[in-house]
Design a protein that fits this description.
Elements: H1 7-32, H2 35-51, H3 53-56, H4 62-95, H5 107-120, H6 124-135, H7 140-147, H8 151-169
Helix pairs in contact: 1-2, 1-4, 2-4, 4-5, 4-7, 6-8, 7-8
Length: 187
């Protein structure tokens, strides 16, 4: 695997990984909903990219290729752990309810938990489209390339996913204020 790469290829991959790891981690967090899973997904994606680096580095859009690898790792993980993940979100939602002392919960934290819980209720492909289009701010074309689908599929998935999020979150949640869309996975 890594032993087969030349020094130049290994240096090229290392530079790519160092430059994009945080970005991939953020995307993985938004897809998976928790830091540990995001770390696992990022590590899996980077390992897969390293194994195929000779081919990957010749791709027209290495970032789109990396997103596709990350999305595929997420889909595989989601199929395996769907029940466990849903149980975790139910517990997080219950814990984020009204505090015992009667004080109002922090609105920003509550909004983030609500948004993450709503994202969790989307099918994996729809969640991937929303994350890439609206958090990563990729174009329709770049999202299609990352997911390996047509631009029409991205548009229809975006429309359906946003309608589902609006239904789950209610009209009062909709905002154009980018700070509400910023999710931190913690450091």
């Amino acid at each position: 695997m890594i032993g087969r790469l030349t020094q130049e290829e290994l240096a090229d991959f290392t530079a790519f990984a160092q430059a994009r790891q945080r970005h991939l981690m953020r995307t993985a967090f938004l897809l998976s909903g928790n830091r540990q899973s995001a770390q696992d997904l990022t590590q899996t994606a980077l390992l897969d990219l390293c194994r195929s680096w000779r081919r990957v580095r010749r791709a027209d859009d290495v970032d789109a290729y990396a997103h596709r690898v990350l999305i595929n790792a997420f889909r595989t993980s989601a199929r395996r752990s769907d029940r466990e993940r849903k149980a975790l979100w139910r517990k997080a939602s219950e814990a984020a309810g009204s505090p015992a002392d009667g004080a109002a919960p922090d609105q920003s934290v509550g909004m983030r938990l609500s948004l993450l819980a709503a994202l969790d209720r989307l099918p994996p492909k729809a969640r991937a489209v929303v994350v890439l289009r609206y958090w990563e701010d990729l174009s329709v074309e770049a999202t299609a390339a990352a997911l390996g689908c047509s631009t029409g599929t991205v548009k229809s998935q975006s429309s359906r996913a946003l309608a589902r999020l609006r239904a789950l979150l209610g009209d009062g949640f909709a905002t154009t204020d980018s700070e509400h869309w910023e999710i931190s996975y913690g450091n």
